Amino acid sequence: MKKYKKKKNKKLTLGSVIVIVLLLVAYFVIPGPEPESVPSVSLEQVPAYSGEPFVVLNENIPNFTQEEYTTESYERYDDLDALNRCTLTVACIGKDLMPTEDRGNIGQVKPTGWVTAKYDFVDGKYLYNRCHLIGFQLTGENANERNLITGTRYMNVDGMLPFENMVADYIKETGNHVLYRVIPVFEGDNLVAHGVTMEAWSVEDNGEGICFNVYVYNVQPGVEIDYASGESWLAEAVIGEGEDAKTYVVNTGSGKFHDGACEQGQSIKTENKETFETTRSQMIAWNFTPAGCCNP
Ligand SMILES: [Zn+2]
């Protein structure tokens, strides 16, 4: 009995070896769908962040080639690199790829550079979001580790979301397809992306409806980020000439700030109210806007 069992095991092992060898042969011999070169932007082409969440690249013309034009929906999420970083996502998005179910939990995915940090002045308080490269509303990808990077709230909401919304609205309205590519850009071995390129092109109308090529910065005003590790800290206080620190009250829901003595500021709901002892320049640097009532 024992002997027979052993023999069977041996046979199985031999069988798996043959299968593995065949798979390896297939992997190296059969060409995959990968294009010859991955279009990527060099950081030398990107100006330093200067207060706008994105800049336009290549006069806003995406780098898709004619061979890539198709009206067949598909989506592709390339392998993580040797450092487990996301590499490239591309899709031809039609209505059929868009999600019909609610977004699921993605909390189990820990993208590279994920270091939890909270700041009072960040919308939602958390500095980082698990940021979809191709937004959930476009292809319905939930916890796909090849599609999620460590992205600031600011990049996610102020940078990427308006473009995603534009594409989603267009597809829903027209039923057309949009070629869509998002590539994270990492400097050297950094674990947090410096930013992402977003390209989109509506196929059926030759880019009439949707055509853009932008670089979105992975920054958060008021926070300094160590892109190598993901660690972050409060940016040094900005002090304008002749400025003194004062008391300001912020409505974290609206991002408006009031003079410490303003009645409307005092009446903000406790869960939305934050008090700061700092300069006006710093409040502006943190992306708060002065409230009209007291004009602080
Ligand atoms: Zn006020």
What would your notes on this structure say?
The chain is an alpha+beta fold. It has five helices and 14 strands. The protein has helices at residues 2-29, 136-139, 153-174, 263-266, 280-285, and strands at 54-56, 74-77, 89-93, 128-132, 148-152, 178-185, 195-202, 211-217, 223-225, 232-234, 246-251, 256-259, 273-278, 289-290. The strands form four sheets. A six-stranded antiparallel beta sheet has the order 1-8-7-6-3-2, with helices on one face. Strands 13-11-12-14 form a four-stranded mixed beta sheet. A hairpin with a 4-residue loop joins β11 and β12 (256-259). The longest helix is centred in the N-terminal third of the chain and has 28 residues, at 2-29. It is globular. The N and C termini lie far apart (88 Å). The relative contact order is 0.13. The model is unreliable at 1-10 and 30-36 (pLDDT under 50). It binds zinc ion. Zinc ion (ZN) is lined by residues 258-259, 262, 264-265, 291, 293-294.
| Portion in strands | 15-25%
Q: Compounds present?
A: zinc ion
Strand element count: 14
Shape: globular
Helix content: 10-25%
Q: Kindly report the average pLDDT value.
A: 88
